[in-house]
Every structure is written in C-alpha cells, then in structure tokens.
Amino acid sequence: MLLWVTWVTAAFAGIFSAHVVQRLCFPYFWKDFFFLLKLIRYGVRLEIYKKKKIVTVMDRFVEQAQRIPDKTFLIFEGCTYTYREIEERSNRVARALRRHGAVMRGDTVALLMSNEPDFICVWFGLSKLGCAVAFLNTNIKSRSLLHCFNSCGAKLLVVGADLLGTLEDVLPNLQEDNISVWAMKQGVSYPGVHCLLDKIEQASCEPIPPELRSTKSIKAATLYIFTSGTTGLPKAAVITHLQSLKASSGFWIHGGTAKDVIYTPLPLYHSAASLIGIGGTIELGATCVLKKKFSASQFWNDCRKYNVTIFQYIGELCRYLCNQPKTEQDKNHKVQMGVGNGLRPDVWREFHSRFGEIRMCELYGSTEGNLCFMNHIGKIGAVGRSNFFYKLLFKYDLVKYDMAKDEPVKDQQGFCQRIDKGEMGLLLCKIGSQSPFFGYAGSKQLTEKKLMRDVFKKGDIYFNTGDLMAEDQDNFISFKDRVGDTFRWKGENVATTEVAEILGLLDFIQEVNVYGVEIPGHEGRAGMAALVIKPECAFDGKKLFENVMAYLPGYARPLFIRIQESMEMTGTLKQLKFCLVKSGFNPSTNSDPLYFLDYTENCYIPLTDSIYDSITSGQRKL
C-alpha cells in the first residue's frame, strides 16, 4: 500500500513538474498543438478533394442550402435572405444569363457591382454555369477598367444599377471589343446595354445541373481578383478552387461555429470579404451581415441590432472606430472576435480598452500569394506565429534586404542570405505542391516578376511577397514595411507606376517618381510624387488636381507633391525612393517646393508650415 501511494505521489509530482516546465518554457504549446491539428485536419480534407470527388465552395453552398434552407444566410439593410432564397435567386440568374446572354461553360464574366445581395447571386449563378468570374474594383477608372477586360479575357460584363453611369465613357470601347454589357436594371437608356433584372424575374428557380459547375481539377480558375502591384495597372490574380477552399476555412480554424453572425463591411470585390467572409460563412453554415459600405458611426449599432459575434476588419477600420466619440454603449455588444489584417499595436490596445477584450485574429497573406500566417494566440502586434511544424508545411524564409538599393543582399555566390531572429528581412515562400503560386491572368511576364529563382541554390523557386517582416525569439511574426512599387493607403494597395503614368499625361511634367510617406496617426502610407517640370513650363496645381480627380480613385491620389530639378537614379537607371521616403513632407526640412492636395480649393496648393502642423496633429481630415 505504501509503495502504491509512493508511485501515485511520484506520478502526480512528475505531471505537475512537466506542467510547470511547459508553462515556463513552452507557454503556447497547447494552443499551437490544437491549432496545428485543425490545419492538418483541413489539409487532409483538401487532399481527399484532390484525389477523389472534388468539392468546391459552390458545392458547399448548395449542400448548406439543402441542409439548412430556412436559416438566414444574408442580412442586408434590414432585409433577411435565407440559404434557400439565395440558392433560388442564383439559379434564376444562371438561367437568365444562359438563355439570353449567350454565356457558356468555361467563359469568363466580369462583375462590377457594389456590396448587395445580387452581387452574391450573380457570382453564384455564374459559378453554377461553370464560368470564371472577374471581380472589378468599383473605384477604378476608364483606362484601368479597359485593361482589366484585356487581362482576364472577359467578353461579358454584369454591372450594378448604381454603377452603370460610371461606364458611360467606356461603353463605346467595350462595344468595339464585342463585350456584352448587362445591367441589373429593369430599363436602360444606354444603347447596346441589355436589361438583366426583368429576365431574372421571369426565369425558373429550378436547380442548375451540377455537371455544369463540376471541375476536373481543384486547381482550375474560378475567380479573378484584381490587385495592384509593381506593374502599375491592376493585375488579375488567378483564384483557384483550392485557394477559395483554403480561404473559406479561416473562421472555422479560429473557432467560428454555425451559431456565429459575421459582419462584413469590406468590399466584396476584395478577397477578404468574398473568399474569407462569404466563403467562411458558407463553410460554417452561419449568417453574414453584409454592409454596403463601412460606416464608423453605424458599426456598433449594427452589431447590437443583429447580434454580431464576428466582424471582418482592416487596420484603418479599427482606427476609425477608435476615433468615434465615446459612449456608454461602447462595450455593450456580443462581438467576440475580429478577423482581418493591418491592425497597428497602438490601435489594437486602444480598441481593447475602448470596446472590450475582443479576440483579434490577425491574418497575413496576399490575394495571389502562396503563404498565410495566422495570429491564433492573439499577441498584439503580430500578424502570425510559426514553429517547427509550421515550417515543415510552409517553406518560407526571411532574407537580408538593402532598402537603399531596393534589392535583396546576395553573397559571393549570388545567393540570398537568411537573417537572424529579430532582424527585418524580405519574406519569400518556396513554391511547391503544398504552396503553389498560380500567378496572374493574361501575362506570363507579370507572373515571372513575382518569382525569385536560384535563391539559396540553383533551381529553387520562391514567391516574392514584397513585404519586410521580422520573427522574434518566440516565433511571432510581425509586418514591418512594403518594398518595391506598392504601398498601402486607406486599406487599398496603391501601385506607384500606375499613378506615375497618370501624372505623366500632363504636358508640363517631364518625370515622375511616386512613393508613400508616413503620417502620424494614420495606417499605411499616403501618396507623394516627386516631379521634374519640363523646361520653359511651370507647375499647374489646378490642372494636376483635375487630372488625378478624373483618372485616379481617392486612395491613389497623391496628397503631396515635391518639385525637383532632377531625379536621383541608381546605376541601373532605377529611380531612388529611399531618400525621398525618409525626408517626408515637412516643408521646414525640405528645400524643394512642396504642394498639398486641397479639395476645398480644387487645386494643389503650397504646403505651408501651418498646413503641415494641422496634418500631423490630426486636425486636418485626410
């Protein structure tokens, strides 16, 4: 008996000691363990889809509509739509387009619509016909819009009623290219534009034969989502069924359930709202509250009204919420989790202090990228977490990067150099079966530009994220900066070359160098352009204002202009941005003339010390 007691006591002491050691030396062990189990579980499911019967996100939606037909799938502007109603409406869209729009399986169809239920119904209807759908950014202007059609090969456009007027200038060009335009309206006064709404109402809601949407490969393209990059004009990122399925698991991996109500105020033409938001809602069998456009003043009232438990965000969204006047109702809500990216540590802390300890699940990944990080621990300031097992699944590396030369640092053999923990480096991810890169539609050259070959040895291939990251001693990964020709402002990627091309259309501008500058209290970087004026010409702030207003979306318009006598270049004739970014937009420390985009004056006006102070203090709204 005494021996038995001794053994039990020793066993308990051993277990307790192991527990203490684990808490002290491996504090995140169990959270990592269960998170990896979920990742592996979903990965096994994807392998089954690859090798046996392929199940797509659209198949999952049809399954859910059959399993829970009367459950609310969508809430929009106070109206509810069940899984059955969206299923039947999308069937009507599919039948109407197939009968009247000459849409065939395998076609690519462009979709230009604001956030509304019919965006989803048109998307689903086209998917049921076996079509690939290209989501068009509702902010893009004529020149970029025409480029989008050329890159993805779409020959039919479905446009929302509220956006039809934005096409007036390019309708002749679309018709010249034999692109059929269908408007979600009953009657249209534009010549050559077809009415779709009445045909949808007349169509049958009977199910569409599943063989039309079936695919032989999980790696076949199902969507094209346009992303800004180093080439300037929008690039059509190829979204496969595999990528859609991976994105749809986001809420589930972070603990979402069918009982959740998900609030999506982000634009559906971006992957966050469509792939993670709508796809994730389908995967859970949950409910999505879709907002036409984000409103900081309405956000928490909506959350309380619809009993929201999960919301999607970008960093700027949370900052806007923190800038709202404080109320006694700030912590009166049922929100338990936020899923998104770009949340600054200071805003994160303020958000928690103001609205309660909501679990913020930061994600990292680009629309076209082959790597995703997830901060399942919730550590403030981290975009993700890694460990030995995660690195077995995703072969990523951080390499030394020369900011001044704007290129990776190479050793004597011409290979990249890995950095030590805690240092900042360029994030690269090896391309392989577990992390494929599907590139961009319409141009092999654009795809090739995102690849780095012979990185650590001859023959290896890596995806270049263009992001500078750091990994600390506890394996938490944080985002530091973007490199190359893209920066982020107002939650959107801004391609500097696209902005430069628009500015270069003006007859008084000889050379343009566009970059982003930091503004205290603002997420991302605001646009700034260094200009060289042609000899015998003068800077025209009024003309420049009219140019950017006509051709650039709000987030891409340079807020600041810097006039230079000559442009500094590298030995390989690349424009230098590093020194320009570093010097910022302070008129007291810049000898070059500076100008500011003033919407009240409808002109670029001289940037004075008082204007600078009002911007940096937050008094002037940007």
TrEMBL record:
Gene Ontology process terms (BP): long-chain fatty acid import into cell
Keywords: Cell membrane, Fatty acid metabolism, Ligase, Lipid metabolism, Lipid transport, Membrane, Nucleotide-binding, Transmembrane, Transmembrane helix, Transport
GO molecular function, one term: long-chain fatty acid transmembrane transporter activity
Gene Ontology terms: cellular component: endoplasmic reticulum membrane; plasma membrane
Subcellular location: Cell membrane
Catalytic reaction list: a long-chain fatty acid + ATP + CoA = a long-chain fatty acyl-CoA + AMP + diphosphate; a very long-chain fatty acid + ATP + CoA = a very long-chain fatty acyl-CoA + AMP + diphosphate; tetracosanoate + ATP + CoA = tetracosanoyl-CoA + AMP + diphosphate
Domain named AMP-dependent synthetase/ligase: residues: 62-384
Enzyme class: ligase
Protein topology in the membrane: Multi-pass membrane protein
Cross-referenced Pfam families: AMP-binding (PF00501)
EC number: 6.2.1.3
Ranges in a coiled coil: none
Family affiliation: Belongs to the ATP-dependent AMP-binding enzyme family.
Protein name: long-chain-fatty-acid--CoA ligase
Organism, scientific name: Silurus meridionalis (Southern catfish)
Source organism phylogeny: Eukaryota, Metazoa, Chordata, Craniata, Vertebrata
